[in-house]
Amino acid sequence: MERGRITSAEVAARAGVSQSAVSRVFTPGASVSQKTADKVRKAAAELGYRPNALARAVVSGRSRIIGLVVAYLDNQFYPDVLERLSNALQAEGYHVLIFMAAQTAGNIDTVLDELLDYQVDGIIAASVALSSDLSARCRAAGVPMVLFNRSQDDPDMSAVTSDNYAGGRKVADLLLAGGHRKIAHIAGWDGASTQRDREAGFIDGLRAAGHTLHAREIGNFMLDEACAATRRMFAQDPPDAVFVANDHMAMAVMDTLRFELGLSVPGDVSVVGYDDVPAAGWLAYNLTTIRQRANAMVAETVDILLAQIADPATPPRREALDAPLILRGSARIPEGWTQ
To answer: Is residue 178 a contact partner of residue 221, using CB atoms and an 8 Å limit?
Structure first.
């Protein structure tokens, strides 16, 4: 006959301690002596005991689970960030529950309902669009939320991004200083705050120097759409420089320019991206780009979320971290410019 689940009472009896001592050993942050912890863990290993995290959550009111919502993982920036967020949260005694959501407000609302059913302690929403009442619903449920690499016009919603507007202006300054005059932009998804802010900074940078955008196409942060946008853009009166809204698309743009259209990068056209994903530094691309400082963004996000979990009265924070320009070989480097 199969034996039932080992109980904490059995572990306590084997270790010669109280049942509450067993509970403290398996509760993150609880006070317990090293001697007691060693005895309890030894007894638990011998009996094959595993603490019931769900039952503990019911008693404590804390699940120690953070819900992470992400729209897509094709962009290398997000798998890297998910790993960093998971590691940072695990170091604080939390686990991550990942949900995928399409880039539509209605879809994230459905995912939110599912997340709240899991009694998560907090939510991080990365690269997703939110409906106007989402933050209010989370507050009503007592679950704090932080937006990662997105922001919205809700003063009660915390958000962590790079300084996308300043990043866009840096690209404009670089391309103008490099002598480019027919400067174009391949945009991402227009519903994303990151896209809007990057383009706004870029356009303002051009205007400040007395220039206007030569051409604009939309790639929607998708490889195939970025390739199609490149073909349309270069079919007539091609630009001599292109700012692409992220690296994921910028590498597709470079491939299309070089291998389909027979153009030299940066000899015929300079290409600049945004994110500084690992592949941007590969010799095959050597992509000039704006770096999103993922470690700093993750640290800020976790700090904000855990502060709001500990004290629901903690005011919301909106952080836009400086994003440095990374000079590589895909864009003409103006004389005198250094990293």
So the answer is: no
